Amino acid sequence: MAFDPASGGGLKQGFFPDANGSYGSGSASSSVSGIRMDAVGSPTTIRYGGQTYIVTQTVKGTAALSKVNPQSGASPSRVSWREIKL
After folding, report:
1. How far apart are alpha carbons 57 and 71 in whole angstroms?
2. How far apart are CA 64 and CA 50, in angstroms?
3. Residue whose C-alpha is closest to residue 23's, from 44, 37, 8, 2
4. Angle subtended at Cα 28 by Cα 34 and Cα 50, rounded to the nearest 5 degrees
5. In terms of Cα–Cα distance, which of 49, 56, 78, 51 is closest to 67?
6. Cα–Cα distance between 78 and 52 in angstroms, integer?
7. CA separation (Å) from 19 to 22, 50, 79?
8. Does this model's pTM top 0.90?
9. Which of 17, 62, 65, 69 has the fewest CB within 10 Å, making it most exposed?
């Protein structure tokens, strides 16, 4: 699932492509925020040819690429959900 970590809400544009390969806006009914990956372990992100992909290992042991659409200006990175209270 993809969401805005700052607000906990949806992204302004679809993170994953729809069945037609396009990305809808967050208000469109075609906006895709999650896909089935059949993956194990931790995913990683790569950029190749100007596109961003999530790379996973499938349950059968093969690699799988999923094209994604991160927010403009956002760099894929690890996010920790630990909150430190002072």
Report:
1. 24
2. 18
3. 2
4. 60
5. 51
6. 15
7. 8, 21, 28
8. no
9. 62
